[in-house]
Amino acid sequence: MPMKITDILGESTGTRFSLEVFPPKTGVPETIPIQRHLSNIFDTVEHLIKYDPVFVSVTYNPEGKTRTTSIPLAAIIKQKYKVEAVAHLTCISTPKKELSKTLDVIEYFNIENILALRGDLPNDSIEAKGLKHASDLIEEIKKHSKRFCIGVACYPEGHPECVTKDGKKDLKRDLLNFKAKVDKGADFAVTQLFFDNRVFFDFVEKTKKIGVKIPIIPGIMPIMSYNTLNIVKRLGNISMPDSLVKKLEDNRDNKKEIIEIGVNYAVKQCRELMDKVPCIHFYTMDRWASVDRILKELI
Ligand SMILES: Cc1cc2nc3c(=O)[nH]c(=O)nc-3n(C[C@H](O)[C@H](O)[C@H](O)COP(=O)(O)OP(=O)(O)OC[C@H]3O[C@@H](n4cnc5c(N)ncnc54)[C@H](O)[C@@H]3O)c2cc1C
Predict the structure, then answer these.
(1) Which residues are tagged catalytic?
(2) Please, what are the domains in the chain?
(3) Which atom of ligand 1 is nearest to the CA of 70?
(4) Of 117, 144, 199, 254, which sits most exposed with the smallest number of CB within 10 A?
(5) pTM of the model
(6) What is the number of other CB atoms lying within 10 angstroms of the CB of residue 174?
(7) 213-242 pLDDT, tens per residue?
(8) How far apart are CA 228 and CA 290, in angstroms?
(9) Residue 19 near ligand 1, beta carbon < 6 Å
């Protein structure tokens, strides 16, 4: 029986968990062979399914490099592990005609939940081709079928592109752009990863003040390597407490210790979020061990 994420959350008591995996790209050299990548994904879900996640979400490459892997993988996870799948979908470079076919496939696989995203802009393009914003994608999905439960992304520290003329963060405008997605019909939201819970709680307060009532699910990425610092820098809108940065710098060459720091930090962050949020979403990076340790501590 397909179920909407909002229905599951509505029936749940206490804080639940969810997972994100990212599928292999096709047609481009991968850092690891596709078979190994797939078995990492299945290992991840297999090890973490015991925590009864609300959903497993599967990312989508905006340049179409996971066009043949994202949705089938979401369908396989749903069928094999009897867990709701959330299919990410990006509007960049997706002509409307193609979008309609993709939505047919999602429906065919009985996937009822979609995370509607614009997608990261390709490096060589300033303007998104195809639909321009996630809000346009929501509109198209709604036109196609009323059956989908639609999630969106939100950014407690602001989206990096939302800046004023003089290059300063325009948090107010970004917040209103988020509200516009809710007004277009978004049913739930998942946040960009963050390391400072105050930023998340402040953001949720601000959304409430402007009338946002949908569940906002915090996204947590356990630090699993020193490279997380580079990922955070690349994302461009995530602050990390100085003490955490220092710990990572001090242990730069000690892979085991970095994982310990990551697990301990995420446990602390999640403990503070528990019972204040409906669900905590883990960016697993297709690796299960850290998330397993974190959930063991929490449950
Ligand atoms: C939980 C989560 C999952 C993600 N999964 C993926 C994935 O699977 N694949 C992927 O490629 N990327 C993914 N991303 C990254 C995301 O695609 C990028 O952050 C992208 O740059 C913005 O996507 P969005 O859906 O938030 O876009 P939008 O909501 O369209 O926002 C993009 C920018 O435009 C502004 N904006 C929004 N609407 C309007 C409007 N109507 N008029 C003017 N400005 C507007 C916003 O303030 C923002 O600055 C994910 C992000 C999160 C938080």
Answers:
(1) 20
(2) 5-298 (3.20.20.220)
(3) 8
(4) 254
(5) 0.97
(6) 20
(7) 999 999 999 999 999 999 888 888 899 999
(8) 14
(9) no
